[in-house]
Amino acid sequence: xxxxxxxxxxxxxxxxxxxxxxxxxxxxxxxxxxxxxxxxxxxxxxxxxxxxxxxxxxxxxxxxxxxxxxxxxxxxxxxxxxxxxxxxxxxxxxxxxxxxxxxxxxxxxxxxxxxxxxxxxxx
Length: 123
Fold this sequence. Notes:
globular; four-stranded antiparallel sheet
């Protein structure tokens, strides 16, 4: 059982930056691909970014490409989401998720989820 704990959310203004962190309890963290998803009020949860087990491959939703960067530190069992040039439409609860071996953009393929962290961007 992998436990994921997100942190780093908050209230910021448009154009600001935030870095989210997701700490995993699993000693074999390096065997898990990681993803970030978000859910805005009244909307379905959507894919944001994903990273391969070794960190060499990343993938982003078009809406965040060029502004967000996903990275991981396997020595610290942590995945990050650096969010720059934030927009009001980025307001959502952000979740990290884990699945073994291969990353995916499909939330149904992730086995483990964190509790989420709120990001609010004011205009």
